[in-house]
């Protein structure tokens, strides 16, 4: 029996749809992008999916199972609006149905499906569910390098008595060039981020709940959207 893991990342990068398509896109949507796959929104999406699955596997352990991840439309827009100099989509104008077409099976590049697998997409009220098949979970486990920082961070925040000083020291273990700032929004106490790590541009936002510290991580564009 195939097991299913629902990793509800509704805040996007957390510590812890089909419909009728519009006719606004004709042909292969990939034609709107540079031939360099790494510059496309699909590559950005693939990296995000792999990052979250790695984080999930660090927390819960690896299982060859279906994984469902949840994204708001705003995050997916960021992936595709930033992709390639020849992008023809006006910023902020990609609708839910247009995004469904962008992510339709016939538009997914082979580079993506060869790694994360034949993903399935559904959406409702601008909230997208991306279902990764068991083969995608297996690929991440067997073919990508372990994220030692995430593994250590998850272990640390899971330790009774963990402090922000210890968390800050962990960041410094991996880079001398970090930024730490207090946050006065009632939801988080501070954020820490690496300044010169192109593979890790997340804002790690922390909140001390008294008995333990929790974190959520956000891509820079999502962090800006939330207006923290």
3D structure, described in words:
- InterPro entries: DUF3877.
- It holds the Pfam family DUF3877.
- Strand 8 (203-208) and strand 9 (213-218) form a beta hairpin.
- With 228 residues, the protein is an alpha+beta fold.
- It is 34% helix and 20% strand.
- The chain contains eight helices and nine strands.
- Helix 1 packs across helix 2 (73-81), helix 1 (41-60) crosses helix 6 (148-157) and helix 6 packs antiparallel against helix 7.
- The longest helix has 20 residues, at 41-60.
Descriptors:
single chain, 5-stranded antiparallel sheet, 9 strands
Question: Could you tell me how far the N terminus lies from the C terminus, measured between alpha carbons in angstroms?
Answer: 43 Å
User: Averaged pLDDT, please?
Assistant: 83
- Spatial extent as radius of gyration: 18 Å
How many strands, what sense, and barrel or not for the largest sheet? 5 strands, antiparallel
> Uncertain spans, ≥5 residues at pLDDT below 50?
1-5, 7-34, 83-88
Helical/strand content category? alpha+beta
Strand content: 15-25%
Annotation field: number of helices: 8
Give the neighbour order of strands across the main sheet.
2-9-8-7-6
Pfam family, one: DUF3877
Provide a brief overview of the structure.
This protein is α+β, with helices and mostly antiparallel strands and 228 residues long. It is 34% helix and 20% strand.
């Amino acid at each position: 029996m195939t097991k299913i893991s629902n990793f509800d990342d509704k805040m996007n990068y957390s510590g812890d749809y089909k419909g009728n398509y519009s006719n606004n896109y004709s042909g292969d949507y990939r034609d709107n992008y540079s031939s360099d796959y790494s510059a496309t929104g699909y590559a950005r999406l693939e990296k995000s999916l792999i990052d979250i699955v790695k984080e999930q596997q660090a927390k819960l352990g690896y299982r060859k199972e279906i994984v469902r991840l949840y994204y708001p439309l705003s995050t997916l827009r960021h992936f595709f609006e930033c992709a390639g100099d020849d992008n023809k989509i006006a910023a902020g104008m990609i609708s839910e149905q247009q995004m469904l077409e962008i992510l339709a099976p016939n538009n997914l590049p082979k580079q993506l499906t060869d790694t994360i697998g034949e993903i399935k997409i559904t959406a409702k009220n601008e909230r997208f569910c991306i279902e990764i098949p068991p083969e995608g979970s297996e690929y991440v486990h067997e073919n990508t390098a372990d994220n030692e920082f995430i593994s250590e961070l998850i272990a640390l925040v899971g330790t009774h008595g963990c402090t922000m000083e210890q968390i800050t020291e962990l960041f410094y273990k991996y880079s001398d060039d970090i930024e730490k700032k207090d946050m006065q929004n009632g939801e988080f106490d501070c954020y820490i981020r690496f300044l010169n790590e192109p593979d890790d541009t997340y804002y790690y936002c922390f909140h001390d709940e008294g008995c333990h510290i929790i974190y959520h991580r956000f891509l820079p564009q999502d962090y800006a959207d939330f207006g923290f």
